[in-house]
Amino acid sequence: MKQNYSVRSHPPKIFVIANQKGGVGKTTTAVNLAAALAQHGQRVLLVDLDPQGNATMGSGIDKRTLMRSVYQVLIGLADVVDARQRSESGAYDLLPANRDLAGAELDLVDFDERELRLKAALQPVLGEYDFVLIDCPPSLSLLTLNGFCAAHGVIIPMQCEYFALEGLSDLVNTIRKVHANFNADLQVIGLLRVMFDTRVTLAQQVSAQLEEHFGDKVFRTIVPRNVRLAEAPSHGLPGINYDPQSRGARAYLQFGAELIERAASWSPASRPAPAGAAVATRPASAAGPMGTVRSTNTAGAGPESSARFPTSPEVSR
What we know:
Blueprint (H helix, E strand, L loop, with lengths): L12 E5 L8 H14 L4 E5 L5 H5 L11 H5 L5 H4 L1 E3 L4 E4 L8 H4 L9 H6 L8 E5 L6 H9 L2 E6 L3 H20 L5 E10 L4 H14 L3 E7 L2 H5 L7 H4 L4 H18 L53
Helix pairs in contact: 1-12
């Protein structure tokens, strides 16, 4: 179906969905959030920046038959207008990926400002969208750096378990470095608790500690562990379209509405601190990507976990 790409009256919000730990529901979040935003009337572009191409397949597009992909866009052989495709199942646009993208890091070595290739490529189409979502690979690579440099903020899906906390610490440190050296607009938009099992005491304890430590940086929505979300990609459908009545689908629809609400009062220039958070001790121009948090040395989720939370980049360097 041919789309009417009229220019929007406001600039889009560009968010990266990232976590350096694999298997945390990152791509599931990217695909279902894109579809949820579309159902809420938003015009969305999803960028698959992972060589595995799972977001592409989960959007109902066969990565094996692609003539153009994000790889050709990054190395200058195609532009976004030619490479993007329509996900009819999700009602959003997709900049797809396949295994060709695995060679992009070597090919980009000879380019000047190689970390800005994606940002430059997206510029001509930004006026056509309300949201641009970027699904990054589960590693710190040149592809991930391109995503961070193109974005205004980072959405971090995470499980409420000890090892996820360690990955969060590494990711926050990475975001802090990108914020300081490449993209001063980059901030953490929020933490999304996914694959949540209410029967597990540790998950409840870690969830409560996240809320206490990070305050409003934790999204209210909690995505439960749900088999229908896991089944959906094999049918080439986002979970919210595969089984709209499932708990996982309803959670992502709620998350889409929450993100729209949060984005309405947010802009890259303002970079607001969370409501009720402590006042930063550093000048506003030097504000870190996490904003401010309520505590910098919060104990873990109890004797079962002995977890300790990462220090906020806002209050320590």
